Amino acid sequence: MGAQALRTVKDLEDLYDADRGIAYGLAFHLLQDQSAAEDVVQEAFLAAWRSRGQYDPSKGGLRGWLLTIVRNRAIDRLRHDRLRPEDALDLKTGELSDSSSDPALLGPERLWIREALGSLPDAQRLAISLAYFGGLTQTQIARRTKQPLGTVKGQLRLGLLKLSSMDLARFETIAR
Amino acid sequence: MKRVDCSEIDELLGGYALTALDELDEASVQMHLAGCDRHQRTVEELTRATDRLLLAAPEREPRPELRTRILEAIRSEAALASVGLGFSEERLPLGSHACLFHSDEAGLKGTMAFLRAGFDQPEEFGVVFADQGRFDSLGAWLQEGYERSVPSLIERGKLAMIPGAATSDDLIAGIGARLDRALAEGYTVIRLLGFIGWEQLGWPDTASIVEFEQRVNRVVSAYPVAVLCTYDLKKLGGLSLMEGGLRNHPITIMGDRIVRGNPFYLAA
User: Fold this and answer.
1) A96 reaches B (C-beta below 8 A)
2) Using one digit for the tens of pLDDT, what is the confidence trace for B25-56?
3) Which of B15, B51, B223 has the CB atom closest to A60's CB atom?
4) CATH architecture designation of domain A1-84
5) Chain B within 8 Å of A134 (Cβ-Cβ)?
6) CB–CB contact A96 B56 (8 Å)
7) What CATH number belongs to A88-176?
């Protein structure tokens, strides 16, 4: 677990050291570009620092809060700056593989989420991964996977409902 | 904008929680949610799932230069953070511990401006650390020249008064707990004004003053706080003034003169 509060530069340093891999991994996976991903991670840490007074620990961990900022910034870049042509995204983006760490080092919380995602039917997992970690809209997913839009909407909704109904209590025990 | 009714909205909610809708659809869902409790609850549930999903993101080691770049940017922002003294044009950086020597009541009363300067800043929290017996007169001093009610500031948790204690451990624990609470409430800047009561009844003896002030220096480095301690030249003994004041405060103030690199300061 990383730092639990952001008060001092040291707290931010601890947060960076604990979560740089997942923050950069997320940004890189979405943007597929080293320099853009680095910029997004830097912007996200600065934004977290500037709005540290708004962080509410009762609503979740610091890591989740940081990652939400990273993802929002990366999605903004992707959609508004049209940084990456839609076709450039490989469908393999639906597969989440780590380039630099041993899965055993991910920690129980992250392994549990990976397993939960892995337990979904293939089409639902792919649609969710393309949306969430590939940054595609549902219309783009329909085009890329050559399925009707209605089918993709169903995959996103059902997959997410399944994830949210999975053993929440168990997740929270692990996450603690 | 397209109006979407309740029956059509269900199929858009998955994409909404995953931020995978086109702009028009997203705007329609937002408009619908503003008036539909049932779908708001569904979105909250789905958002909990997407929040957890973020942790499944792939891991990738960034270049080491990124760490340096980010920390340099944050450090230069943090270095700019400071609070005005209120009674002079000078400022105290956050993370600093200053000692103000005074020899009369007017000098002491002047320090109220240090706290008052933070009352109207939404991100700031003020705390006075003094003998319980002083609280009434401090309240009256703070009120002078301030149009809103000081008791209401205390009620709202914007200002706190912490009493002294008989041991350094209790003093430090009391200050730390109150600062933690202020941060948990969302304040990002803290002003702490201390009235040092060494040699008075109910305070630790002078021998523990060095240890206490050194511990304050550690607290100061762990919080976004500017600490101003007041030392009474007439009431405190030479040892307290020297060991507690001069040797343990990196910044010293006398009248309108502020010394930032106090040569007597002994870094812990």
Assistant:
1) yes
2) 999 999 999 989 999 999 998 988 898 898 88
3) B51
4) Orthogonal Bundle (1.10)
5) no
6) yes
7) 1.10.10.10
Residue type, B211: E
B62: tokens are 């960034």
When pLDDT is cut at 50, 70 and 90, the band that residue B99 belongs to is very high
Chain centre distance of CA B89: 21
Cβ of A138 under 8 Å from any chain B Cβ?
yes
DSSP class per residue in B166-197 = SSHHHHHHHHHHHHHHHHHTT--EEEEEEE--
Q: What is the pLDDT of residue A2?
A: 43
Q: How far is CA B251 from CA A112, B208, B261, in A?
A: 51, 21, 6
- CATH 3.40.50.300 domain position(s) in chain B: 83-259
Reported as a single tens digit per residue, the pLDDT across A21-58 is 999 999 998 998 999 999 999 999 999 988 887 787 77
What is the topology classification, in CATH, of domain B83-259? Rossmann fold (3.40.50)
Residue B204 has pLDDT above 60, yes or no: yes
More confident residue, B176 or A56: B176
Report DSSP state, residue B199: T
In chain A, where the domains are located: 1-84, 88-176
User: CB contact, 8 Å: B14 with chain A?
Assistant: yes
Q: Mind telling me how many Å the CA of B212 is from chain A's nearest CA?
A: 22
Residue B39 has a pLDDT of 92
Rounded Cα–Cα distance for residues B54 and B58 (Å) = 9
Partner-chain residue, chosen from B20, B78, B186, that has the shortest CB–CB distance to A131: B20
- Taking an 8 Å cut-off on Cβ atoms, the answer to whether B62 and A42 are in contact is no
pLDDT tens digit sequence for A118-146 = 899 999 999 999 999 989 999 999 999 99
Asked if ipTM goes beyond 0.90, one says no
CA B110 distance to own-chain centroid = 22
A61 close contact with B: CB closer than 8 A: no
